[in-house]
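for the writeup, i need someone to sanity check this before i put it in the appendix. the sequnce is what the collaborator sent (i think, or maybe the updated version? ugh). structure was predicted straight from it, no edits. if anything looks off just tell me and ill rerun, i have time this weekend
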Amino acid sequence: MTQTGPMTAMSKEMQDCVEACMACHGICEETMSSCMQMGGQAQMQIMRALIDCSEMTRMCADMMMRRSPMSAEMCAMCAKACDMCAEACMSMPDDPQMMRCAEACRRCAEMCRAMAGATM
């Protein structure tokens, strides 16, 4: 019986998901910066979603890279955070940064949902 240790190569799907998470994390961080400059009460709700999404995507990528047994559950939670962030960003359709962020969040959510359904 072959031992599959922690150095087993990541699947293409998992690598793509890690990349989507890291891209989403980055754009959430950038969007937070532009959101802070706007100020206002509406931005506070968007900020919460951005912070949650940024933290979750980074943690999700980290857990997949270290082959955590909790990766599937983390991917499911991450997809939810990404969906919520995309929704929040969509509340400002005239802002190109928010729209880029929403797009990255939707892509990441889709990939995380697929990973959550897959056996890792």
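The chain has a mean pLDDT of 90. Residues 72 and 103 are 22 Å apart (CA to CA).
thx in advance!!
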